[in-house]
Amino acid sequence: MKRFLIIASVFLSIGALAKEPRKYITETDKYIVWQPGVKLTFDMFMKNEPTDKDLKSMKDDNRKSMPYLGFYRVLDVPKHFSKKKSNMEKAYFCATFSKHQSYMAERDSFDLQIAQAHWDIIELATRTSRITLDHFQKQADSLANGPVSGVKSIWFETAYQEGNDLYNELLYGLFKEVILPRDKEMYIKYRGLLDELLLSTADYATTPEEAERLLLKKPIDKNLKQAKNVIGDLRKKD
């Protein structure tokens, strides 16, 4: 009986280890990628001395800080052609905050709120890109009655541009109606809109895997390699 209990405990321990989810890198000493529940803090603005460009931008934008944020993307494709679903291409989109490049002249809570709203807007842009790619992938899979490879490679840049268009539209409104006039009442309205959009698109939030892929700057899947060239925006231009 004692031997049975020992063996059982070993198997249970192995099972517990097998079920433990893999932990991905979502933050480094220089960058942090948008993740659900993660908020910007004053301490994340780590740049000690502003550049002349920082000072000019803060003056022009009526701000007391200069956050450096980015909408990053990368496409990984199979090293070798394969019909296996596991070897299909993967697209990654991330909203990134650069800690070592972001400067704050003083710990102004409204400026921090504005930076968070800006970061959230970029996250919404990444979700728009994922939704667009998912749409094209599902269409192709439906027509072929099975998974189709190559779809993400074809529509990757188009999906990015769809997200980027939303980013520019939302940021322009935030800049004109909230940032420049430092209108706190209007900020509350924008904050409510952003929260609704984030909630309604939660299924397409940036994943920890996407964050690690961007931060490590190399494919996570050993069967994939970074695409050297991508097809341009395929949307019809007026």
What is the mean pLDDT? 90
Q: How many helix segments?
A: 6
Helix/strand structural class: alpha+beta
Specify the oligomeric state.
single chain
- The succession of helices and strands, N to C, reads HEHEEEEHHHHE
How many structural domains in the coordinates? 1
Distance between the termini: 78 Å
Number of strands: 6
Shape estimate: globular
Strand order of the largest sheet: 1-4-3-6
Q: Largest beta sheet, briefly? A: 4 strands, antiparallel
Low-confidence sequence ranges: 3-17
Output the radius of gyration.
22 Å
Beta-strand content estimate: 5-15%
Helix content, binned percent? 40-55%
Description:
The chain has 238 residues and is of the alpha+beta class. The chain has one domain. 50% of the residues lie in helices and 12% in strands. The chain has 6 helices and 6 strands, in the order αβαββββααααβ. It has helices at 2-19, 52-61, 109-144, 151-179, 184-200, 208-216, and strands spanning 31-33, 65-66, 69-78, 90-98, 103-104, 224-226. The strands form 2 sheets. The chain has a 4-stranded antiparallel β-sheet with strand order 1-4-3-6, sandwiched between helices. Strands 2-5 form a two-stranded antiparallel ribbon. The longest helix has 36 residues, at 109-144.
